[in-house]
Amino acid sequence: MRIGVLTGGGDCPGLNAVIRAVVKTAEHKYHDEVIGIRDGFSGLIRNKTHPLDLARVSGIMPRGGTILGSSNRDNPFKFAEYIGGKMVQSDVSDTAVENYKKNGLDCLIVVGGDGTLDIAHKFSQKGLNVIGIPKTIDNDLYATDITFGYDTAVTTVMEALDKIHTTAESHHRVMVVEVMGSDAGWIATAAGIAGGAHIILIPEIPFEIEKIARKIYERKGRGKHFTVIVVAEGAYPISGERTIKRIVEGSSETVRLGGVGEYVAAELERQTHIEVRTTVLGHIQRGGTPSAFDRILATRYGAAAVVFAHEGKFDHMAALRTPDIVSVPLEEALHQMKRVSPDGSHIVTSRNVGISFGD
Amino acid sequence: MRIGVLTGGGDCPGLNAVIRAVVKTAEHKYHDEVIGIRDGFSGLIRNKTHPLDLARVSGIMPRGGTILGSSNRDNPFKFAEYIGGKMVQSDVSDTAVENYKKNGLDCLIVVGGDGTLDIAHKFSQKGLNVIGIPKTIDNDLYATDITFGYDTAVTTVMEALDKIHTTAESHHRVMVVEVMGSDAGWIATAAGIAGGAHIILIPEIPFEIEKIARKIYERKGRGKHFTVIVVAEGAYPISGERTIKRIVEGSSETVRLGGVGEYVAAELERQTHIEVRTTVLGHIQRGGTPSAFDRILATRYGAAAVVFAHEGKFDHMAALRTPDIVSVPLEEALHQMKRVSPDGSHIVTSRNVGISFGD
Amino acid sequence: MRIGVLTGGGDCPGLNAVIRAVVKTAEHKYHDEVIGIRDGFSGLIRNKTHPLDLARVSGIMPRGGTILGSSNRDNPFKFAEYIGGKMVQSDVSDTAVENYKKNGLDCLIVVGGDGTLDIAHKFSQKGLNVIGIPKTIDNDLYATDITFGYDTAVTTVMEALDKIHTTAESHHRVMVVEVMGSDAGWIATAAGIAGGAHIILIPEIPFEIEKIARKIYERKGRGKHFTVIVVAEGAYPISGERTIKRIVEGSSETVRLGGVGEYVAAELERQTHIEVRTTVLGHIQRGGTPSAFDRILATRYGAAAVVFAHEGKFDHMAALRTPDIVSVPLEEALHQMKRVSPDGSHIVTSRNVGISFGD
Amino acid sequence: MRIGVLTGGGDCPGLNAVIRAVVKTAEHKYHDEVIGIRDGFSGLIRNKTHPLDLARVSGIMPRGGTILGSSNRDNPFKFAEYIGGKMVQSDVSDTAVENYKKNGLDCLIVVGGDGTLDIAHKFSQKGLNVIGIPKTIDNDLYATDITFGYDTAVTTVMEALDKIHTTAESHHRVMVVEVMGSDAGWIATAAGIAGGAHIILIPEIPFEIEKIARKIYERKGRGKHFTVIVVAEGAYPISGERTIKRIVEGSSETVRLGGVGEYVAAELERQTHIEVRTTVLGHIQRGGTPSAFDRILATRYGAAAVVFAHEGKFDHMAALRTPDIVSVPLEEALHQMKRVSPDGSHIVTSRNVGISFGD
């Protein structure tokens, strides 16, 4: 077989481990050839490809990023280009199909999130043999138990919390740490438990500033003059988003940074007169060498995808149904989100050990 | 309630996270008191105890080891002491029962491996309210999907392999790394996949030196002049253990170090004339700050044990049946070992990506 | 002797290593007693003290923060307190002197930055036997070659840059990372070199956005579609601070976060239409386990301070004059700042390897 | 100019940072060309070279090892080859000179230890324009204050000691950790201080087992039932090496592992009946991503070497004379070793904080 592979969407630790496993399984098990496609689907449109052999993937597993590059705005069905100084959108999916054939591909492995896999499914409908591998740092894809990159992101946040803890404790401070998770609070919850947070705010549980302040005072009453708060970027106050917008009004340039972490800090300072410091971890959550857990999971996904290709399971994606990697029809897998359940084990454990969700 | 807690057996990252979760759940959820028992069962025999409150467990989660201390040879049913320069064994379990009562305990949470939990079960039969929490770095306890400490140990080995990889590659060397796992090859297999090992030797799959040499030559044929081999300490050659013993004969003092890693290195050098270097990771695999995964798992175990205490689930232990923590009768849980299945996902994935098991 | 020790000012990795070395040297070398004073000078005012012995400092070296606590606004010569809902400032230094005597101290070791050491010097003039140990994460104290905490902060920033690098490269992004350094660019420069930054902006060298844009284009011309920029929080554009203020006008609440990193990102996006992402590392630079370098340096400072106490070198501070720790009169040491020299080895090396300073 | 660069001898973190700095300085500052020579001097003999440009060195700084490969037994003046099944030594230095010319080199930058730099000097005498960069993980080169790789090795050992500490403490164990340093105890001393070792054994200070045992008992007397001992591989008992040899007699195969760490452990167990565990860190001390300190130092060396080339300072090597990088005649620099001074600051500080050297 001649297998193409591309990586799409945001950066995620483990992408190189997937690519490596695809190449290693293809060569060692099947003596297949693998073609790497550069920069996501835009490489398929512009025919930027090169062979991937064992030498090329040697030593890449510990590295963050993707040796194939990625792209965020490369939907071939609505491809946006500047033509004559104007942004024009067009359907160039036929060009992509042509290049698939020109490269003599028997199959295309697409590693990506919901958006990227949706495009993969559309190419399946246009006749390409596509196999998906789910990728999101946020762990919010419904079809699979866990996604690679998530454990590494949780580790990065936990390490930041470990560092912030000592400062908070030495200086009697309230520290707010804003982390990834616009729709689901997985990273905030897991890293919050692991990093010893006292309050965790997530999109699944709207918060009240008063409840947060109460927890801070309760801790003060016990002689604990510091509090660590983890906030998922998608968390919001029960009283509605309106409040957040008010704060950043009149300053269009600084809106980007004034997220919910900033809002929580500002409101807490206003209500409690305690000093609050905010840290926004940002893109460091997407980088770094993948954790052992993620390297193994990514390797399993990559190896399974090649096996699925040989079994003809096209228009499917690899999914973890613990302890197995199974194939799931792409159509079923898409557009469903896995959110943190307020009755699930993470929240129950958190509440048991005294963590407040600001509700 | 008044809950006692002790930690027994070998060191394992996550013990402090368990203790912390026990105390936090006891205080926050139930307003219980917790009594820490020092140095495993020997603290129960000698009545070395102290209260554990929130202040005492503050900040301990990131630390390796156990703030309660542990002990390896403290079985109260066969307690060994030097009396008059002679080692004498006696049953002092009644003393332990007395101290349990003297401390006013309603329940005793015992964190330990197979041996420690066996003792816990015996105390149940003597009328104590005991709840077990499984602990082994080797991940080989049958009753639970995963044990805390394992992910951290795998990470430590993976990081060592990452370091060894670059030396092996720059210097065209064969590097043998001996890791923990006398009965089961979980650490070797997982860390081997994550650390990019080319050959993994585990107790579940007896190896042949010739097969290992063949893999080294096959790599050389592809221009890869280095090979990284991970060996679980319990791995052995198919031709029998006899060979290992021969090597260390005549040198009783050095036997301890001359493990299977050393054997593999010596035999490979003899057969291939390629330079081989051995590293024995030893106790660093038991230490260090627990990984995020282990902190969360340990916290879940600790919190669940207190809940089980309030539900009266004595003579049981907490066990992970993904995604839940359930209670399992101690009797059922003990004396069964979980080994790496040659048909399981780890081995299948490994073989797919070209890893050899020397068979 | 009876030696008091306190830590003042902002958090800094290595404080616990200093405290530990003070106690260990006092006990092992001189059989002295050590008294810990809580929360900086405020503990001396309120007489919050406790003995520090070997048991108390066991195992603290790897931990961030300070076991003694610290305080930021505790100048006994201008002590601020809320009295009757109003902030009142008064000179309570005599109370501090009294408590020094009440605790039977023969000497007080003060670990702190410029402000804290200035207070220490004033107490010397009031007759106390004071010895200073310099502390600043920013490495900008004139009197000493290097301060502890700096190497750890550089390492934290470097690790963040390593993580951001892979994302920048995979996604063709310009990434701006704002780091500590309001008056001096030591952290930005050292971490920038170590983390492979392409542009470093520091207070010592005012920048021009056009020059930054030019470097980005120059890289693009060589096929490098990403650029990593490190900005010290005190860097500013050559055209004057005015521009930064304009941006945050009208939004008093969000001013805190809209630092120079944000300014650089916004201006670059405006001028180049390339996507720019900003990360503000904040307080994680002050936390974490100290690096080997900092542990050794902090241990040397702590041990030397006790030796100086026995040599009667009061009103002095310990200072590193490579390779020795010497004593320097506090008066000489204060109020002088060490900035990055534009002709110094760090800047010269940076320019040699092609790093731009935006000038 | 056309500059060749090669790396020789053992692996050392920072080699890639040197290579990168050479290429970056050559291209950015001088528009020079750089030619990489593979596998040390053996690449010059066999003419295995390739151009090194900015793209080739992009992203290599964080990686351990050397992208050029190295070689241990490649002295062109005594080159050993198997010819007809027999090892034959010959002087092939003229071939190397020829290949230097064939590649059109104006200068050759040689990164290596004492042995490699000695060869470099001999090529200088044969008319080549050679510039040396000192490299040893052991920090024992006389001509330079500090060598890159050393700080990383110290960090690796410190991290291992941090891990071992918690196990030692939880289990009341004596732990022996054997580290690199056959002639000088720099790594053992620095890592011992930073890792909180209680006893450090180095080649510069012969030890007595009785003194070690006394320290263990002294600690026990203070309630400290654990002790951490760091042993440099070249440390030896005052009573002579003879004892070490006796232990491994009769077992020629296991001699390699039965180092001084093993000896100390065995003797201590014999004399104290306390359980002792040994860990031999081995090659993981040579690997891993370089520390910030080492990346900066390596970058300075690499950049300076290219500047020296343009200044015509051939037959010299770059050396750190804090805070400057200077050029030193190779002849003066070689064959002198820098050992840990028993009166130097490291030993004095160590003794002050109560560390024993077993003397």
User: CATH topology of the largest domain in chain A, which one?
Assistant: Rossmann fold
The order of strands across the largest sheet of chain A is 3-2-1-6-7-12-13
What is the total number of structural domains of chain A?
A: 2
Q: Supply the helix-strand structural class of chain A.
A: alpha/beta
CATH architecture of the largest domain in chain A: 3-Layer(aba) Sandwich
Q: Treating each run of at least 4 consecutive H or I residues as one helix, how many helices of chain A?
A: 13
N→C terminal distance of chain A: 55 Å
Order of helices and strands of chain A: EHEHEHEEHEHEHEHEHEHHEHEEHH
Biggest interface and residues each: A-B, 55 and 55 residues
Uncertain runs of chain A with pLDDT below 50, 5 residues or more? 242-257
- Under the CATH scheme, which class of the largest domain in chain A? Alpha Beta
Oligomer state equals homotetramer
What portion of residues of chain A belong to β-strands?
15-25%
What is the share of helical residues of chain A?
Answer: 25-40%
Mean pLDDT score of chain A, rounded? 92
Largest sheet of chain A: 7 strands, mixed
Overall shape of chain A: it is: elongated
The total of beta strands of chain A comes to 13
Radius of gyration of chain A: 22 Å
